[in-house]
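Quick note —
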Amino acid sequence: MSTNPLSFDQLLDFLDNQESPYVLDSVATHGFLTATVIGPALANWQQALFEGQTDKVPENVVDGVQRWREAIIAELKNETPIELPFGSDEESEQAVAEFSEESDIVAWSIGFVDAMYADDAEDWFEDEDTAEDVAVLTLPMIVLSGIDDEDAELAQMRNDKDKMAQMANSIEGNLTELFLLFHTKD
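Predicted structure written out below.
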C-alpha cells in the first residue's frame, strides 16, 4: 500500500496530464485493465502496462492503478457489467460516432488490444473450442484500435460508420461474454 494514496480523481488527473512515455491516459488504462481482468491471466500486467518501467512511475500511481483494477474485478464479481469510461447515453452515442484517433473509444480499444497482446505466452485464441468466439467478441476492439491498419478488410470496416457504431455499441456486452468464456467452465 502506498504511503500517500491517490483518490480516484487524482489518479485520473495524473494519468491524463502525465507526459511520461510509460503511462497511458485514463481511458486507455481502463481498456488495458479491463482486458487483464476479463481475459486470460496476465501475471506481469503492471510491467506490461508501464512498458517495463514500473520503477519510473510514482508508487502511489502504481497503487492507484492496482486499486482501480481490483474495483473492476469487484464489479464483475457482483455481476455488474463493466462500465466504459465514455458512457452509453445519447450524448455519448454521438461521441461514439466519432472514431478519430483522438476519440475515447479508440484510446480505450488501443489499451484493451495492448493488453491482449502484452504477453506472448498468453494467447487469447489458444483454445480451439473458443477461438472463433473470442475472435468475434474482440473484433470491435481490434477494428476500433486501428492496430492492424494494413489489413484491407479491417480498413474497410473502419470506413463504414454504421458498422463502427454497431461495433462500439456491442463492446459492453462482448466484455461480459469474454469474461464468461475465460472464467467459467461448462
